[in-house]
């Protein structure tokens, strides 16, 4: 009976990290969806500007697309590192369970958990970096005169159905 209690204790601590990491993954996923959505919007707007010989506007969109792609790469690295951390934490839970019966599994669980936390920390730093870049990107767009008075985005004025 004592082994069963130890088994549940072994699962509990990493399970808390699994829950916290899963919430971070959800947040990162929402951020990535927003970036991808914005990127698609800008690609379509750039194509529309280029097709209609609005060269300066197309150049402005190109600059923003480059910025958004860099942000997307940061979020992708963040997402992958946090997912690796999640997988490592889940695997360490399993190894801790085996560690109740096999001591080497418990040692492996600790090593894996530490590696997972390092990945989580690295992913968090990428997240922080992307948030900082996102704010500078918005400031750059606000100061770019090529974006002034462009009117509504192409998706909005192309489909007026009221």
Notes on the protein architecture:
The chain has helices at residues 2-51, 55-99, 103-143, 154-157. By secondary structure, the protein is mainly alpha-helical. It is built from four helices and no strands. The longest helix has 50 residues, at 2-51.
The overall pLDDT, averaged over residues, is: 81
The major pleated sheet works out as: none
Helix content: over 70%
DSSP summary, beta strand count:
0
Distance between the termini: 68 Å
The coarse silhouette is rod-shaped
Content-based structural category: mainly alpha
Q: List SSEs in N-to-C order.
A: HHHH
Low-confidence stretches: 156-162
- Rg of Cα set: 23 Å
Q: What percentage of amino acids are in beta strands?
A: under 5%
Number of helices: 4
Please give the structural blueprint:
Layout (H helix, E strand, L loop, with lengths): L1 H50 L3 H45 L3 H41 L10 H4 L5
Helix pairs in contact: 1-2, 2-3
Could you provide a short overview of the structure?
The chain is mainly alpha-helical.
Task: List the main descriptive attributes of the protein structure presented here.
162 residues, mainly alpha, 86% helix, 0% strand, disordered C terminus
């Amino acid at each position: 009976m004592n082994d069963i209690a130890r088994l549940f204790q072994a699962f509990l601590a990493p399970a808390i990290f699994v829950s916290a990491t899963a919430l971070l993954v959800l947040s990162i996923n929402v951020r990535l969806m927003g970036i991808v959505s914005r990127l698609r919007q800008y690609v379509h707007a750039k194509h529309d500007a280029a097709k209609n010989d609005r060269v300066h506007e197309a150049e402005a969109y190109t600059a923003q697309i480059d910025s958004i792609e860099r942000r997307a790469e940061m979020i992708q690295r963040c997402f992958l590192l946090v997912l690796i951390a999640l997988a490592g934490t889940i695997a360490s839970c399993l190894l801790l369970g085996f560690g109740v019966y096999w001591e080497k599994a418990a040692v492996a669980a600790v090593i894996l958990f530490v590696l997972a936390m390092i990945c989580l920390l690295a992913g968090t730093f990428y997240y922080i970096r992307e948030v900082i870049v996102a704010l500078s990107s918005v400031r750059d767009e606000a100061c770019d005169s090529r974006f002034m008075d462009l009117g509504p985005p192409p998706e909005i004025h192309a489909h007026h159905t009221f």
